[in-house]
Amino acid sequence: MKSKAIFYHAGCPVCVAAEQTVASALDPQRFDVEIVHLGENRRRVAEAEAVGVKSVPALVLSGAPFHINFGASLEALK
User: Fold this and answer.
1) Distance CA 36, CA 14 (A)
2) CA–CA separation, 59 vs 53, rounded Å?
3) Domain 3-77 belongs to what architecture?
């Protein structure tokens, strides 16, 4: 059974680089990866916040957030 992975980002250069490096490196046999651009999909900011995301880019694996680098705070995306 695949685990859920959600990669939240805001489209900034740091986020795009992290998406290309981190999210694309996940094994598709093990993870069902969803990419969420919070700059374009602001209604999902609350969802990201609810699982513990503080800044983007962030990768959430099986409900646990992992902050990759500081690109933008969620507060800036509201």
Assistant:
1) 15
2) 9
3) 3-Layer(aba) Sandwich (3.40)
Helices (H), ranges, 1-78: 13-21, 45-50, 74-77
Strand blocks (E) in the chain: 3-9, 31-37, 55-61, 64-73
Contact residues for 48 (Cβ-Cβ < 8 A; gap 6+): 6, 8, 36, 38, 56, 58, 60, 74
Q: Taking the chain, what is the end-to-end CA distance rounded to the nearest angstrom?
A: 34
pLDDT in tens, 14-50: 888 888 888 778 998 999 999 999 989 999 999 999 9
